[in-house]
Each structure stands twice: as structure tokens, then as C-alpha cells.
Write a structure and sequence with these properties.
With 289 residues, this protein is of the alpha/beta class. It has two domains: 93 residues, membrane protein fhac (Ubiquitin-like (UB roll)), CATH 3.10.20; 125 residues, Rossmann fold (3-Layer(aba) Sandwich). Helix content is 34%, strand content 25%. The chain is built from eight helices and 13 strands. It has a nine-stranded mixed beta sheet with strand order 7-6-5-8-9-10-11-12-13, with helices on one face. Strands 1-3-4-2 form a four-stranded mixed beta sheet, covered by helices on one side. A hairpin with a 3-residue loop joins β9 and β10. The termini are far apart.
Length: 289
């Protein structure tokens, strides 16, 4: 004889609801666990040394195969962006960095292409290089290395900073970075580093320089703060500069009524004097905005 079910209708319905709820909770927990297992397998198969620090480029191929559903599951499992750390920024615009990073709090951390982020950051003129690191489960670390300005480049009536590689950066106002050498000429930036090495021979003499102009994409003219112009040769400009420094120390050339010193011929030096014997007055070199 079959056993009679003594449960009431309400009790049977309640039991059914509880069973469905238990199944749903089991499925949610199982899904999260599966997501975690998939992440762990991906990290291990990718040859990672540690779980908590996953660096740029190491799992890019794996990310391409992650479906939106899987990313959603990993996000629910805790693999989502909660903190973004930035290191090395001093002059770069925060807006530019934020646009390049292009990550929001709550984004699935495994759906972010670190390599693309790094390339976007390095496309910013002020940034020379960048490192991006994913620290699981919820952090993105960004480290940027900014270009260091070595001179001011006057071109088309405006001033721009340039670095040691001759890369032009942001525009600046005339009074900003006033201690940097002003260079002029279409190809001046790419030759500025070599010129500065030459001029560094005598730091005291360097302080007397107002600007340096690139002539014919071949050589430099140096203009001093008192208006005297030195024409350096195309070949062996370093030796010519050192010779000029020695001549000035022996004869105080910059203190005399001189308009220009022409050293372009190497073995002969031409000094053009000012007609009157009046010492040339110091004049301020105009730095166009």
C-alpha cells in the first residue's frame, strides 16, 4: 500500500520553492567556482609564475577567446577593476592619461587589453614609455616614464619643448622653462642633443648663450645675450667651440665691440667689429609666443 503524503498543499509548494532556490544558489556558486578554475588554468597554461601578479602581454591570446558571458562570470567572481594606480606622472595631463587608460571601476579586469593600453599611453607626446600591470583580482597598475625637456624649439612663431631624442612635446609660454636653450630651425630638434654636448664643454660660457640657430640644415650659429653671433663650421664644430672658449678667456672677446665671429673656414677666423668703439649693449632675445 502506497505511503500517504501527509503534507498540505501549502507545505508541498513551499518545499518546491525551497528546492528551486537551493538549485539556483548551487548553480550560482558552481558558476563562480568554474570561472575561478578557468582563470587559474589560463594562468597556469600561460606559464605565469604567480597568481596575484599578471603582467602586460602574458595572457593576451587567452583574452581573445573569453566570451562576454565568461567575462561576466569572472566579474561576479570578483575579477573586476576596483583600484587603478598611476606612478611617474609629473607633467602629463591627467585627462590624457585617463583617456589612454580607458578603464572604469567595475570593468571585468580580464577583458582589458594591457598591450593596447600601453600603446595608447605611449602615443601621448610627453610619455616616452609606459608599463601596465594587472594585479589580480582587482587592481591595475600604470607606470609612465615622461620625456625630459632639454631645449625650447621655436617654430612657426611658437615654442615647444623637445627631449633628448628630438621629439617635440607640448607648447609652452615664453616665460616657462626660460632656463632651457632656445633653438631655431626646421631640423634643429634632431640635432639639439649633439649641440648641447658640445656647448657643455664650458658651463660658464653656456650661461652667456641666448639662442642657437640651425643654418641650412648643416651647421649652427650661436647668439650670445649681448648680441654677438658665433658662426660654427659644419665640420668639427666641437673643436671650433673649444677654440672660441679659449680665445674668449685669453682675450675677453665677449667684452669687446664685436658683431660676429666667423669660424666656418676652420683654419681662418674672421671677426667683424662694430664701427664705433662703444661696447655692445646687452639685449634681450625675443622669444615669440
Amino acid at each position: 500500500m502506497a505511503k500517504k503524503d501527509k503534507l498540505t498543499k501549502r507545505q508541498r509548494e513551499s518545499k518546491k520553492i525551497n528546492r528551486k532556490r537551493a538549485i539556483r544558489q548551487w548553480w550560482q556558486v558552481t558558476s563562480r567556482r568554474c570561472s575561478i578554475i578557468m582563470v587559474l588554468l589560463a594562468i597556469i597554461s600561460g606559464g605565469f609564475g604567480g597568481f596575484w601578479s599578471v603582467k602586460s602581454g602574458k595572457v593576451e591570446q587567452f583574452y581573445a577567446f573569453l566570451s562576454n558571458n565568461i567575462l561576466s562570470q569572472t566579474e561576479k567572481a570578483g575579477f573586476r577593476v576596483e583600484d587603478i594606480y598611476l606612478e611617474g606622472r609629473k607633467f602629463t595631463s591627467l585627462d590624457d592619461v585617463g583617456t589612454a587608460v580607458n578603464v572604469k571601476i567595475g570593468d571585468p579586469i580580464l577583458g582589458i587589453s594591457l598591450e593596447q593600453m600601453r600603446l595608447r599611453l605611449q602615443a601621448i607626446p610627453r610619455i616616452k614609455s609606459a608599463e601596465v600591470e594587472r594585479v589580480l583580482p582587482n587592481q591595475i597598475h600604470v607606470k609612465i616614464f615622461e620625456r625630459q625637456p632639454i631645449a625650447l624649439w621655436q617654430n612657426d612663431g611658437k615654442l615647444r619643448l623637445i627631449d633628448n631624442d628630438g621629439i617635440a612635446m607640448e607648447y609652452v609660454k615664453p616665460y616657462e622653462y626660460k632656463d632651457l636653450l632656445l633653438i631655431i630651425g626646421e631640423d634643429a630638434p634632431e640635432h639639439a642633443s649633439d649641440l648641447l654636448k658640445i656647448l657643455a664643454f664650458d658651463p660658464q660660457m653656456y650661461k652667456n648663450i641666448a639662442s642657437a640657430s640651425r643654418i641650412g640644415e648643416r651647421r649652427w650659429n650661436i647668439t650670445f645675450k649681448n648680441g654677438i653671433e658665433l658662426k660654427l663650421p659644419e665640420k668639427e664644430p666641437e673643436q671650433a667651440w673649444q677654440h672660441f672658449v679659449k680665445m674668449d678667456k685669453e682675450n675677453s672677446l665677449l667684452q669687446k665691440a664685436i658683431k660676429s665671429v666667423d669660424m666656418r673656414l676652420g683654419d681662418r677666423i674672421f671677426i667683424k667689429t662694430i664701427p664705433s668703439e662703444v661696447k655692445p649693449e646687452s639685449k634681450k632675445i625675443q622669444r615669440d609666443t
